[in-house]
Amino acid sequence: MRYIPTTPEQREHMLRTIGVETIEELFTDIPAEVRLDRPLALRPALSDPEVLTALRALAERNGHADRLVCFLGAGAYDHFVPPAVWQLAGRGEFLTAYTPYQAELMQGELQAAYEYQTMVCELLAMDVANASMYDGASALAEAAVMARDLARRDRVVVSRAVHPEYRKVLRTYTEPLGIRIDEIGHTRGVTTTEDVRRALDTAAAAVIVQHPNFFGCLEDVQAMGEAAHSVGALLIVATADPLAFGLLRPPGALGADIVAAEGQPLGNHLNFGGPYLGIIATRREFVRRMPGRLVGATTDADGRRGFVLTLQTREQHIRRERATSNICTNEALNALAAAIYLSLMGPDGVRRVAESCARKAHYLRRRIAALDGFAIAFQAPTFHEFVVRTPRPADTVARALLREGFLGGLPLGSLYRGMRNHLLVSVTESRTREEMDRFVDALGRVGARRRRQAVVTVR
Amino acid sequence: MYPTDYRYSTEHEWAKVEDGRVRVGITKFAADRLSDIVYVELPPVGTEVSFMQPFGVVESVKAASDLYAPVSGKVVEVNDALKERPEIVGTDPHGEGWMIVVEPSDPSELEKLMDAAAYQKHIGEG
User: Fold this and answer.
1) Smallest CA–CA separation between B60 and chain A, in Å?
2) Which of A290, A343, A433, B121 has the most neighbouring CB atoms within 10 Å?
3) Contact yes or no for A319 and B64 at CB 8 A
4) What is the pTM of this model?
């Protein structure tokens, strides 16, 4: 098998056919001074085994969660993905299927999306979910646009305890649409209902809170929902890890009108940050403002059960500039993985994963709290993520931990003013007690180094 | 087929003057083109609409189309029956399938619209 597409004879033949003497003649439009007048200085070709060795060497320079012990979360979670998930999702029939343009030809793909939507609704206690968005951040931005259209108001209030990157995407999306974003601060790691009330008025389309929030703390979602509804605004709940609702009351039970969530934790690997899975779910009465596509079940002419794209008439390829949203595709494969994961786990499995995360995180939280020089920054209840106050700048601590084989968490200094000594630590069910104990020892050593230095400077 | 006391817009809305108010709907031609109508989105009473600007959406199994106001003014009535039974637009577009009633701010705008004969010519049925 040759990988060079043409022989010299074939090239000659082609040149003759188009009436050109040499290949160089095809480049006469390009000024001579910017043209390379010699062949490219490429190294001689490697054999297949040599290529694999070279690529492996490159790949091994990456630090990743299979090699390092991961306590890093902040929107991407190292949950265990049962091998069955990708054994099934990786089948050719699914892997090669693109977003359904001839939707009804792809009954398997549609049924998978339908099951995914159903399970997402069960997990979040919402009425309808779409067939998927790009990721949690863009789902949140779409939710804000939805709220603007539903409330016919142009102002959205968002808590700073919402993921900083989600808030950036929110601004990128909404600024050209003339939506005003007002941020409210957090108090000791949580958004207060008083602050929400103060920020809300009858010009506000929605208030956005993350639950559990970026710092891992639980928010009083229900009270914020009541505050929003009292002025005719919607409550949008963002969630970076929907598995939390294996344990916590789901947003639908707390008054959420729209939920925007990151679906990566549901059967999807970390994937170096993407592709991820955007989840958006809402109440039935808002379904026509929902972006993207909604798959529905119906019966065909012979009365057999089948699946269709129930809601896509408002998409941009039909409504152009007046479309409800300009999302052009979806994350069908990641949604499929989420559906397989949720069906493998079942409600009981999801609850057990959530419990395991919470128990382990609380064990680690207690151990770190007892460490000399370290403290837990916020006292509010947390699910599987919490902020640690470090004796040295958190990025120095994180670097020291990396040398010891740990992805130690996210330093918050570049994201929040006055949080240079704050590290966001996350614990999933994948972590063992032995790993957590080693992590605490490593933290202790990093902290002790600081105290020795302090003694030196006193002298 | 096309009532002679209605005025018609290029976007296939009809306007019927009733005691100084204007009842608005879509024409049979538009309803037939849309085929099965599954949803009609109308503005709440009190909304200000502008001449030939979108005031709502009619959605069929084929497409979602904007509805354009054939006259400027305030919406004083909305056909709530269409919420539950949008198919009325298809079966009786010039009657029971009406959409809104507008209190016009400038009734002379209606003169810019077509009469039944001109509209039928416009859609190639004249």
Assistant:
1) 8
2) A290
3) yes
4) 0.85
CA distance A313 to chain B (A): 5
pLDDT in tens, A361-399: 999 999 999 999 999 999 999 999 999 999 999 999 999
For residue A315, the distance in angstroms to the closest alpha carbon of chain B comes to 9
Per-residue pLDDT at A98 exceeds 70: no
Which residues of A fall within a CB distance of 8 Å from B64? 313-314, 318-319
Three state DSSP letters for chain A: CCCCCCCHHHHHHHHHHHCCCCHHHHHCCCCHHHCCCCCCCCCCCCCHHHHHHHHHHHHCCCCCCCCCEECCCCCCCCCCCCHHHHHHHCCHHHHCCCCCCCHHHCHHHHHHHHHHHHHHHHHHCCCEECCCECCHHHHHHHHHHHHHHHHCCCEEEEECCCCHHHHHHHHHHHHHHCCEEEEECCECCECCHHHHHHHCCCCEEEEEEECCCCCCECCCHHHHHHHHHHCCCEEEEEECCHHHHHCCCCHHHHCCCEEEEECCCCCCCCHHHCCCCEEEEECHHHHHHCCCCEEEEEECCCCCEEEEEEECCCCHHHHHHHCCCCCCCCCHHHHHHHHHHHHHHHHHHHHHHHHHHHHHHHHHHHHHHCCCCCEECCCCCECCEEEEECCCCHHHHHHHHHHCCEECCEECCCCCCCCCCEEEEECCCCCCHHHHHHHHHHHHHHHHHHHHHHHHHHC
Q: Is B37 on the interface with A (CB under 8 A)?
A: no
Which of A286, A315, A319 is the best substitution to test chain B (most B C-beta atoms within 10 A)?
A319
pLDDT digits over A99-141, tens only? 656 778 888 889 999 999 999 999 999 999 999 999 999 999 9
Q: Do A318 and B63 lie within an 8 Å CB cutoff?
A: yes
